[in-house]
Amino acid sequence: METTAEKKYTFKDFQSDQEVRWCPGCDDYVILRSMQKALPEMGVKKEDVVFISGIGCSSRFPYYMNTYGMHSIHGRAPGIASGVKLANPDLSVWVVTGDGDSMAIGGNHFIHVLRRNIDLNIVMFNNEIYGLTKGQFSPTSLIGQKTKSSPYGNTQPPFTPGELALGAKARFFARIGGNVPKDITKILIEAHKFKGTSLLEVLQNCVIFNDGCYTNFTDKAVKEDKQIYLEHGKPMIFGKNRDKGLVLNGLKLEVVTIGENGITEEDLLVHNAKEKDPTMQQMLVRLDYPVATGIIRSFDDVTLEERENALTEQVKANSKFTKADDLFFAGETYEVK
Amino acid sequence: MVTDKKIKPIEVLEGVVIRFVGDSGDGMQLTGTQFSDTSAMFGNDISTFPNYPAEIRAPKGSLYGVSGFQVHIGSLEVSTPGDDLDLLVAMNPAGLKTNLYALKPGHTVIVDTDSFTKKNLEKAQYDANPLEDGSLDNFRVIEVSMTSLTKEALKDVDGLDNKSITRSKNMFALGMVYWMYHREKDHTIEFFNKKFKTKPHLIEANTKVLNAGYFFAETLELIPNSYTISPAKMDAGTYRIIGGNTATAWGLLAAAEKSGLELYLGSYPITPATDILHELVKHKHFGVKAFQAEDEIAAICSSIGASFAGDLAVTTTSGPGLALKGEALGLAMIIELPLVVVNVQRGGPSTGLPTKTEQSDLMQAMYGRNGESPVVVIAASTPANCFNYAFEAAKLAVEHMTPVVLLTDGYIANGSAPWKILSVKDMPEIKNNKVTKFSEDWHPYTRHEETLARDWAIPGTPGFEHRVGGLEKDAISGNVSYVPENHEAMTMVRAEKIKKVQNYIPELKTEFAEEGDLLVVGWGGTYGSLHSAVKQFNEEGYKNVGLAHFNYINPLPKNTEEVLRKFKKIIVCELNNGQFVNILKMNFDELDVYQHNKIQGLPFANGELIEQFKQLVK
């Protein structure tokens, strides 16, 4: 585990000297600022923080953080981050990626990093479009979406990132809008605390190529009615008037109104992020209305490093080899005189 | 049972080449390994070459399911597994059919007559039984009903099913060959005791069959010749038999210990490189971190991450895997981190010939990346010196802050030979470029004057927080830079950095002649073949034929041109269609260069090389 910082940092300590070059109005600025505000709260030493990214707009992120960082190649950040963490488990390792980077070109690494559960954190900026290559459809673009590479409408069905992640055995999955910096900061801190691979999907608006793609449920005016912000141990309740909620009807989630048909708050489901069985969490990530945000899954499990360390200790304790020479000269050797 | 009745006294031989062949399930690799190990313990020099099909269990009795193991043992220096066979042991008709071509006329073939059934003859595409139609008249055939004799030997052993009984007939063959060459059985019996520790009936069975074969050969006195090969004259010291892939793995272990760095391996299984992964995963006691990734790309990427974090990082692969790693290798090059990439070459292109040897990845290693992307390329040349070059690859990577591609090949990786064990304390020092105390004038891309290597500032070190990446970077700060002149300067400095490695590698030396009529040039795994051919050629009376064998390819040794120009003609011999020859032509004008290329998935044979040399030297 990381050692705690003695020094108290402010967000400025995490700003690099590089000019931020995202488009004006991009949610990426919000995420960057939220991260720079979250890090001082984590109590981790600046020199122990590493950001690894792939390729895409989101992947410029490490350049703007005054920590160790690597802007690597398309889709491969999970592999590089895994190597960093396995080489030095004391580091706080973050992967910054986008929907194309993680689920198209890097899809294989994305599912396997989630499966292994190495203690690292992934922040995925999902804007349902390719930004840096100027506007082609991504694996999360909607059917019918008109883009530079689908002028008559996209014909490829999208992934739901949460569904894919939980299917790949993600232990921690959270989703949040790109316009709520305080919530982002809060979840980043929780992600850091979580032991194992965490994945935060930020629903990030691309002002140039896919502007307004989330407005119908992230806009301030409708947000509370269209989203359900989940908190572990609390009832699944939402709405401006806190009068809507979720119940289970057969194998489906159903929206109910408190006060109608004899429904009370007692009848609502209670969110259990720590449940091992992801069935309910899968249902939540698939919901179109309300859109589930917050920490949807946070299941404590053994990490890969813990398993590896335990094995290493066990092998060391039982081995007669401490130096390479012990191995080289052991077994079937013979003398030539 | 045995056709030849002549009995001869013991002959003392300088060397003998033996090949064991049978179905891929017949245990030929084990038989061959046991024979080689025993011979090495006896003090012979040995060189081995397994030849097995890509299919794990090809249909029984089929021609393409034949698995073979060749061993060359000698009382003199042995540098190849040999060409022509003195003894062929064929456990079935398919083995005989596919290997008889290599047997020297008049020499011995031992066959298991029980396997020469109608069905097996058909599968081997024999129209008539070769044991009966006179087609083996030029050879000394020893017919032994090995399967029946094995069954007979085991009739009193309890707890054996039919399958295990038939499977142990390879030990009958081994027993016979032990007697023929005056080898002790002890080593193999000890091996049974260890391998079957929990299955005493298998120890008993295998020992019985081995003895049965041995005594069969001895007491019936029906073996035509009896040979002994006296011990080779080798340097005094402690030896062991080592395979090339194990030697590579051990060289990396030695480098990690010597440098004080932790060893990290990111790998993905691929023939014929996987044994390096198999070996390194065992050594958790040395703190080795071996990570089997989801694919070749993740494997190298995890190694790049580990290198960024300060480990001695390695990735191992073969040709197709190196193709997949290309982009990431370019990243490691531009961010200037140490990384060892081991490529155990196999026949290509594409999936090619996975279990066969070739040297056709040289250009890929040199240039298989986008952009101007120079890396250090070196090659091991014998099974044992895979140890030295793996160590050297790590040393160059860490000291010069660069990826190093180490080329071996299926031939030396799977081959084995005696290795005079090197102690870590006798290996050269490995210095690294890690920094610990920050000062304000530090920049990520400032360079050491002599090597042009940059500092290795690893996460966890206060003050050095910096960003690297695949985008072109400013020559000093490492920040992203699109400045045209900067890009050109950075391209040049990255090339110059590799060039400067010349100052840290040994000069090229020739063998047999320093100047003269013909220089034979090779690189990598063909050393044994070329050495033995040039030696024989000079012994046949052709003088002034030299051998220059390259282990350092990028950069080339400083004196390369000087060495080459001392000979009138040059012949570059490679197991590819002419790759190194083009590197030489590209670097040095007006050399009188000839080439000999072989692309059959097989090593060079002595005879074919000498034929080539003869055409160039009158």
Short description:
The complex is a heterodimer of chains A (337) and B (618). Chain A has helices at residues 27-42, 77-87, 99-105, 107-116, 161-167, 181-193, 215-218, 223-226, 279-286, 304-318, 324-328; strands at 49-53, 68-71, 92-98, 121-126, 172-177, 198-203, 227-230, 237-238, 244-249, 252-257, 291-298, 333-336.
How would you describe the overall organization of this protein?
The complex is a heterodimer of chains A (337) and B (618). Chain A has helices spanning 27-42, 77-87, 99-105, 107-116, 161-167, 181-193, 215-218, 223-226, 279-286, 304-318, 324-328, and strands spanning 49-53, 68-71, 92-98, 121-126, 172-177, 198-203, 227-230, 237-238, 244-249, 252-257, 291-298, 333-336. In chain A, helix 1 (27-42) crosses helix 6 (181-193), helix 3 (99-105) packs across helix 4 (107-116) and helix 5 runs antiparallel to helix 9. With 337 residues, chain A is of the alpha/beta class. Chain A has a domain at 11-213: 3-Layer(aba) Sandwich (Rossmann fold), CATH 3.40.50. In chain A, strand 9 and strand 10 (252-257) form a beta hairpin. The N and C termini of chain A lie far apart (53 Å). The longest helix of chain B has 20 residues, at 200-219. Chain B has 618 residues and is an alpha/beta fold. Chain B contains 20 helices and 23 strands. Chain B folds into three domains: 10-229, 3-Layer(aba) Sandwich (Pyruvate-ferredoxin Oxidoreductase, domain 3); 240-426, Thiamin diphosphate (ThDP)-binding fold, Pyr/PP domains (Rossmann fold); 510-616, Rossmann fold. Classes of the chains: A alpha/beta (337), B alpha/beta (618). At the A-B interface, strand 1, strand 2, helix 2, helix 4 and helix 10 of A face helix 1, strand 9, helix 9, helix 11 and helix 12 of B. Strand 12 (333-336) of chain A pairs antiparallel with strand 9 of chain B.
